[in-house]
Design a protein that fits this description.
Layout: H1 2-26, E1 33-34, E2 40-41, E3 46-51, E4 60-62, E5 65-67, H2 69-80, E6 84-89, H3 92-96, H4 99-102, E7 108-109, H5 117-120, E8 123-125, E9 130-139, E10 154-158, H6 162-170, E11 176-180, H7 183-191, E12 197-201, H8 202-211, E13 215-227, E14 230-232, H9 237-247, H10 250-260
Parallel strand pairs: 3-6, 3-7, 10-11, 10-12
Antiparallel strand pairs: 1-2, 4-5, 8-14, 9-12, 9-13
Helix pairs in contact: 2-9, 2-10
């Protein structure tokens, strides 16, 4: 019995050593670096961007490539630093919680992300780069023109968004709120009649409506929201400065007009 137990203990020790060796062999090589201007990036020569796809026109896939307004703005900053860009598609909650940045999955978080006190507690934000409101989208001719009209009806929202929070705080108590993982599913729920309406950011919904005449935005809610890009808390002021420079540049105005048809309001 003693010999048997000693043999088991030896086998367990060898197994643990093998697992440790395997884990070490599979560990991701540390390729992080600091640029000449002091910007810390997880991969040398690349600005790695975390977002959650799709969210047209801010970030979405077209022709096998991730494109959009947010991507173009961050490319201005990357180009100025002589870096490429790479986009990583991950869960939205992983981004807005700061986890994606804290675990080294990316250098910057993006996704038409509203700057809130809760998010500022776990991430650092750039200057605002887009002013947004919440919008109500319905089937064309539905007659639904306000949140009050949703009494006894259903509304689609996107998980983890300020639009979802707004609906939960302001819609009639008997409104059925259906939450979807991404914006595409939320929009399709309205388009196909699975829900009577949907609430999300105006930039997103107005773009969708421009391509789908069977739905319309019937009203917008002034919520005083501004979008920002985020970086790891208290760790990368130089990257914040580089993105702020991009937001203040003439190239930003060109990118804005490219996606929204006109220069941003002063």
């Amino acid at each position: 019995m003693v010999l048997y137990m000693e043999t088991r203990a030896l086998a367990a020790s060898l197994s643990a050593l093998l697992l440790a060796a395997t884990a070490a062999g599979c560990a991701k090589e540390d390729t992080s670096t600091t640029t000449e201007s002091g910007i810390e990036v997880i991969d040398e020569g690349t600005l790695t961007i975390c977002t959650h796809l799709p969210y047209e026109p801010f970030e979405f896939t077209e022709g096998g490539e991730v494109v959009g307004f947010d991507v173009d703005v961050l490319k201005i900053a990357a180009d100025a630093e002589g870096m490429d860009t790479e986009v990583v598609d991950i869960g939205w909650e992983t981004i807005v919680s700061g986890e994606a940045l804290n675990t080294g999955q990316c250098d910057v978080g993006a996704g038409a992300m509203t700057i809130t006190d809760e998010r500022e507690a776990v991430m650092d934000f750039t200057n605002p780069y887009f002013e947004a409101t919440q919008a109500l989208m319905t089937k064309t001719g539905s007659g639904i023109a306000s949140l009050e009209d949703l009494a006894g009806k259903s509304v689609a929202v996107q998980d983890g968004t300020t639009g979802a929070d707004y609906v939960r705080e302001n819609a009639p108590e008997d409104t059925e709120i259906r939450s979807f993982e991404d914006s595409s599913l939320m929009q399709q729920a309205v388009k196909t009649g699975r829900t009577d309406a949907g609430v999300n950011d105006n930039g997103l919904l107005n773009y969708f409506v421009s391509q789908n005449p069977d739905v319309e935005v019937t009203t917008e809610f002034k919520t005083g929201e501004s979008y920002g890009f985020s970086v790891k808390k208290d760790s990368n002021d130089e990257l914040i400065a580089a993105i702020n420079d991009a937001i203040a540049s003439d190239e930003y105005d060109e990118v804005y007009a490219k996606w929204f048809g006109e220069a941003p309001a002063e």
